[in-house]
Amino acid sequence: MKPKNIRDALPDTLEIETFEDILRVPGVRIERIVSKGQASPEQGWYDQDEHEWVMVVAGKAAIEFADGSHCTMSAGDYLNIPARCRHRVSWTDPGDVTIWLAVFYT
Amino acid sequence: MKPKNIRDALPDTLEIETFEDILRVPGVRIERIVSKGQASPEQGWYDQDEHEWVMVVAGKAAIEFADGSHCTMSAGDYLNIPARCRHRVSWTDPGDVTIWLAVFYT
Description:
The first copy, chain A, is mostly beta strands. Chain A has strands at about 5, 20-25, 30-35, 50-60, 60-65, 70-75, 75-80, 85-90, 100-105.
Protein backbone atom coordinates (compact mmCIF):
# COMPACT_ATOMS: atom_id res chain seq x y z
CA MET A 1 0.00 0.00 0.00
CA LYS A 2 1.56 3.27 -1.09
CA PRO A 3 0.54 6.64 0.35
CA LYS A 4 -0.48 9.56 -1.81
CA ASN A 5 0.18 13.12 -0.71
CA ILE A 6 -2.43 15.85 -0.35
CA ARG A 7 0.01 18.31 -1.96
CA ASP A 8 0.67 16.09 -5.00
CA ALA A 9 -0.59 16.69 -8.52
CA LEU A 10 -1.86 20.20 -7.93
CA PRO A 11 -3.95 21.42 -10.86
CA ASP A 12 -2.00 22.91 -13.78
CA THR A 13 -4.06 26.04 -13.63
CA LEU A 14 -5.12 27.70 -10.42
CA GLU A 15 -7.37 30.13 -12.25
CA ILE A 16 -10.36 28.14 -11.14
CA GLU A 17 -10.98 26.43 -7.85
CA THR A 18 -10.75 22.62 -8.16
CA PHE A 19 -12.68 19.97 -6.27
CA GLU A 20 -11.50 16.35 -6.35
CA ASP A 21 -12.80 13.28 -4.56
CA ILE A 22 -10.18 11.46 -2.51
CA LEU A 23 -12.68 8.92 -1.24
CA ARG A 24 -16.37 8.38 -1.97
CA VAL A 25 -18.50 5.73 -0.31
CA PRO A 26 -22.17 5.80 0.69
CA GLY A 27 -22.54 8.37 3.47
CA VAL A 28 -18.96 9.71 3.38
CA ARG A 29 -16.97 11.71 0.89
CA ILE A 30 -13.47 13.09 1.37
CA GLU A 31 -12.57 15.89 -0.99
CA ARG A 32 -9.51 17.99 -1.75
CA ILE A 33 -10.24 21.56 -2.70
CA VAL A 34 -7.49 23.74 -4.15
CA SER A 35 -7.96 27.52 -4.24
CA LYS A 36 -5.79 30.50 -5.04
CA GLY A 37 -7.48 33.82 -4.55
CA GLN A 38 -10.96 32.56 -5.45
CA ALA A 39 -14.01 33.32 -3.37
CA SER A 40 -17.61 32.18 -3.70
CA PRO A 41 -19.66 34.62 -5.76
CA GLU A 42 -21.53 37.21 -3.65
CA GLN A 43 -24.71 35.18 -4.11
CA GLY A 44 -22.91 31.83 -4.06
CA TRP A 45 -23.92 30.52 -0.68
CA TYR A 46 -23.39 26.84 0.05
CA ASP A 47 -26.58 25.36 1.47
CA GLN A 48 -25.67 21.68 1.72
CA ASP A 49 -27.60 18.50 2.35
CA GLU A 50 -24.49 17.00 3.94
CA HIS A 51 -22.57 18.01 7.02
CA GLU A 52 -19.02 19.12 6.29
CA TRP A 53 -15.96 18.84 8.48
CA VAL A 54 -13.28 20.95 6.82
CA MET A 55 -9.62 21.66 7.56
CA VAL A 56 -7.19 24.01 5.86
CA VAL A 57 -4.07 21.93 5.17
CA ALA A 58 -2.08 24.80 3.64
CA GLY A 59 -2.77 28.46 2.89
CA LYS A 60 -5.26 30.93 4.31
CA ALA A 61 -8.94 31.57 3.82
CA ALA A 62 -11.99 33.27 5.28
CA ILE A 63 -15.52 31.95 5.58
CA GLU A 64 -18.68 34.00 5.97
CA PHE A 65 -21.88 32.63 7.51
CA ALA A 66 -25.45 33.62 6.76
CA ASP A 67 -25.77 35.23 10.21
CA GLY A 68 -23.11 37.75 9.18
CA SER A 69 -20.28 36.21 11.20
CA HIS A 70 -16.90 35.49 9.67
CA CYS A 71 -13.91 33.39 10.51
CA THR A 72 -10.41 33.21 9.15
CA MET A 73 -8.62 29.90 8.74
CA SER A 74 -4.98 28.96 8.29
CA ALA A 75 -3.03 25.70 8.23
CA GLY A 76 -4.43 23.17 10.68
CA ASP A 77 -7.63 25.10 11.42
CA TYR A 78 -10.79 23.05 11.16
CA LEU A 79 -14.53 23.60 11.44
CA ASN A 80 -17.61 21.42 11.49
CA ILE A 81 -20.33 22.97 9.33
CA PRO A 82 -23.73 21.33 9.82
CA ALA A 83 -25.98 20.63 6.84
CA ARG A 84 -28.10 23.65 5.91
CA CYS A 85 -25.72 26.06 7.65
CA ARG A 86 -25.40 28.57 4.84
CA HIS A 87 -21.84 29.72 4.26
CA ARG A 88 -19.51 31.01 1.58
CA VAL A 89 -15.78 31.31 1.13
CA SER A 90 -15.30 35.07 1.29
CA TRP A 91 -11.53 35.07 0.64
CA THR A 92 -8.59 32.82 -0.13
CA ASP A 93 -4.98 33.95 -0.19
CA PRO A 94 -4.20 35.27 -3.69
CA GLY A 95 -0.46 34.85 -3.07
CA ASP A 96 -0.33 31.16 -2.28
CA VAL A 97 -2.21 27.92 -2.79
CA THR A 98 -4.87 27.03 -0.24
CA ILE A 99 -5.50 23.30 0.14
CA TRP A 100 -8.66 22.24 1.95
CA LEU A 101 -9.52 18.77 3.17
CA ALA A 102 -13.28 18.33 3.45
CA VAL A 103 -15.12 15.35 4.91
CA PHE A 104 -18.79 15.36 3.91
CA TYR A 105 -21.08 13.04 5.84
CA THR A 106 -24.79 12.46 6.24
CA MET B 1 -18.30 29.61 14.43
CA LYS B 2 -14.68 29.52 15.55
CA PRO B 3 -12.12 27.11 14.11
CA LYS B 4 -9.99 24.87 16.27
CA ASN B 5 -6.49 23.86 15.20
CA ILE B 6 -5.23 20.31 14.84
CA ARG B 7 -1.94 21.38 16.48
CA ASP B 8 -3.67 22.95 19.51
CA ALA B 9 -3.70 21.53 23.02
CA LEU B 10 -1.14 18.83 22.44
CA PRO B 11 -1.00 16.40 25.35
CA ASP B 12 1.19 17.47 28.28
CA THR B 13 3.03 14.22 28.12
CA LEU B 14 4.07 12.54 24.93
CA GLU B 15 5.21 9.43 26.76
CA ILE B 16 2.08 7.67 25.63
CA GLU B 17 0.30 7.90 22.32
CA THR B 18 -3.01 9.80 22.62
CA PHE B 19 -6.23 9.26 20.70
CA GLU B 20 -8.93 11.96 20.76
CA ASP B 21 -12.25 12.18 18.95
CA ILE B 22 -12.66 15.34 16.92
CA LEU B 23 -16.06 14.25 15.61
CA ARG B 24 -18.18 11.21 16.32
CA VAL B 25 -21.50 10.51 14.63
CA PRO B 26 -23.08 7.20 13.60
CA GLY B 27 -20.94 5.72 10.83
CA VAL B 28 -18.14 8.32 10.95
CA ARG B 29 -15.47 9.17 13.48
CA ILE B 30 -12.66 11.69 13.01
CA GLU B 31 -9.77 11.22 15.39
CA ARG B 32 -6.52 13.01 16.18
CA ILE B 33 -3.67 10.74 17.16
CA VAL B 34 -0.50 12.22 18.63
CA SER B 35 2.66 10.09 18.75
CA LYS B 36 6.29 10.69 19.57
CA GLY B 37 8.50 7.70 19.09
CA GLN B 38 5.81 5.15 19.95
CA ALA B 39 5.13 2.10 17.85
CA SER B 40 2.49 -0.60 18.14
CA PRO B 41 3.72 -3.56 20.20
CA GLU B 42 5.20 -6.38 18.09
CA GLN B 43 1.97 -8.32 18.53
CA GLY B 44 -0.23 -5.19 18.46
CA TRP B 45 -1.82 -5.49 15.06
CA TYR B 46 -4.85 -3.36 14.32
CA ASP B 47 -7.61 -5.52 12.89
CA GLN B 48 -10.47 -3.08 12.62
CA ASP B 49 -14.19 -3.36 11.96
CA GLU B 50 -14.12 0.10 10.39
CA HIS B 51 -12.32 1.37 7.32
CA GLU B 52 -9.74 4.04 8.09
CA TRP B 53 -8.60 6.92 5.91
CA VAL B 54 -5.53 8.35 7.61
CA MET B 55 -3.23 11.30 6.90
CA VAL B 56 -0.06 12.41 8.62
CA VAL B 57 -0.51 16.12 9.33
CA ALA B 58 2.93 16.59 10.88
CA GLY B 59 5.88 14.35 11.65
CA LYS B 60 6.98 11.01 10.23
CA ALA B 61 5.89 7.43 10.69
CA ALA B 62 6.06 3.96 9.20
CA ILE B 63 3.29 1.39 8.87
CA GLU B 64 3.69 -2.34 8.47
CA PHE B 65 1.05 -4.58 6.92
CA ALA B 66 0.33 -8.21 7.63
CA ASP B 67 1.62 -9.22 4.18
CA GLY B 68 5.07 -7.97 5.26
CA SER B 69 4.98 -4.75 3.24
CA HIS B 70 5.87 -1.42 4.80
CA CYS B 71 5.34 2.21 3.97
CA THR B 72 6.73 5.41 5.36
CA MET B 73 4.58 8.49 5.76
CA SER B 74 5.36 12.16 6.24
CA ALA B 75 3.32 15.38 6.29
CA GLY B 76 0.47 15.27 3.82
CA ASP B 77 0.76 11.55 3.08
CA TYR B 78 -2.50 9.64 3.29
CA LEU B 79 -3.68 6.04 2.99
CA ASN B 80 -7.01 4.29 2.91
CA ILE B 81 -6.86 1.14 5.05
CA PRO B 82 -9.86 -1.15 4.53
CA ALA B 83 -11.51 -2.84 7.50
CA ARG B 84 -9.78 -6.12 8.41
CA CYS B 85 -6.55 -5.04 6.70
CA ARG B 86 -4.18 -5.90 9.53
CA HIS B 87 -1.55 -3.24 10.14
CA ARG B 88 0.62 -1.76 12.85
CA VAL B 89 2.57 1.43 13.33
CA SER B 90 6.14 0.17 13.19
CA TRP B 91 7.83 3.53 13.86
CA THR B 92 7.14 7.17 14.64
CA ASP B 93 9.78 9.89 14.74
CA PRO B 94 11.28 9.98 18.25
CA GLY B 95 12.59 13.51 17.66
CA ASP B 96 9.35 15.29 16.85
CA VAL B 97 5.61 15.06 17.33
CA THR B 98 3.64 13.10 14.75
CA ILE B 99 0.02 14.21 14.36
CA TRP B 100 -2.32 11.87 12.52
CA LEU B 101 -5.80 12.66 11.27
CA ALA B 102 -7.88 9.49 10.97
CA VAL B 103 -11.38 9.22 9.47
CA PHE B 104 -13.02 5.91 10.44
CA TYR B 105 -16.10 4.92 8.49
CA THR B 106 -18.30 1.88 8.06
